[in-house]
Amino acid sequence: MGKTEKVSGMRKIIAERMSDSWHVSPRVVYTLSVDMTKPLAYIDKLNQGKEDKSKKVTVNHILMRACADAMKEYEYVNSSFADNTITIHDEINIGLAVAVEKGLIVPNIKDVGSKSIDEIAETVNDLVYRARNNKLNLDEIEGGTFTITNLGMMGIENFSPIINQPEVAILAVNKIIDTPVAEDGQIVIRPKMNLNFVADHRVIDGAYAARYIKTVKEILENL
């Protein structure tokens, strides 16, 4: 007989919430590839002269801003569904999934749409540090309206995350891969990254979801 573990605490909460979401939300995954040439150059530019790691900008931070900017046009992505009611939120509060010991926690950045990239970076870096050291306040893990989860640094090229209820969408971020592409009749190598946008079809229809994630892609590729 193998080892058994009684499920409790954080793992029990995660199990209950993920199971509820799996059965409640009719989700569809929309995948596209982003050319990260300009975003990576933009990140390098923003990080020039920054020695303090707590202030450094990463892909997660520019994605948060791009997602928030796109939500200004596609407001249903920044909504929630509960009691047969859709609530479109005034503020864009984006959560970032953070792996912690024996679980996962999603601190969220309040009012992302009003923050600069540097402000987003400092806020996120602080939240991630405190999440991993069990020092978050309740307000910092409540009130999220959209979630981003990134497994790219672990080599994952495609995955389909479960929506964080009562939110109606989540974005999966994958590994950046040097990829041969055809440009003007020539083969060149570009850093490409898959984004998997998972949407609740009760609120977000296919064409709406496709236009939203295409807008995110355009924002990133034109930084």
UniProtKB/TrEMBL annotation:
GO molecular function, one term: acetyltransferase activity
Residue ranges annotated for the 2-oxoacid dehydrogenase acyltransferase catalytic domain, each copy included: 3-222
Keyword NAD attributed: no
Family classification: Belongs to the 2-oxoacid dehydrogenase family.
One GO cellular component, as annotated: cytoplasm
Gene3D superfamilies assigned to the protein according to its UniProt record, in alphabetical order: Chloramphenicol acetyltransferase-like domain
Required cofactor(s): (R)-lipoate
PANTHER family membership: DIHYDROLIPOAMIDE ACETYLTRANSFERASE COMPONENT OF PYRUVATE DEHYDROGENASE COMPLEX, LIPOAMIDE ACYLTRANSFERASE COMPONENT OF BRANCHED-CHAIN ALPHA-KETO ACID DEHYDROGENASE COMPLEX, MITOCHONDRIAL
Ligase found in the keyword field: no
Gene source species: Candidatus Allocopromorpha excrementigallinarum
Protein name: 2-oxo acid dehydrogenase subunit E2
Keywords from the named record: Acyltransferase, Lipoyl, Transferase
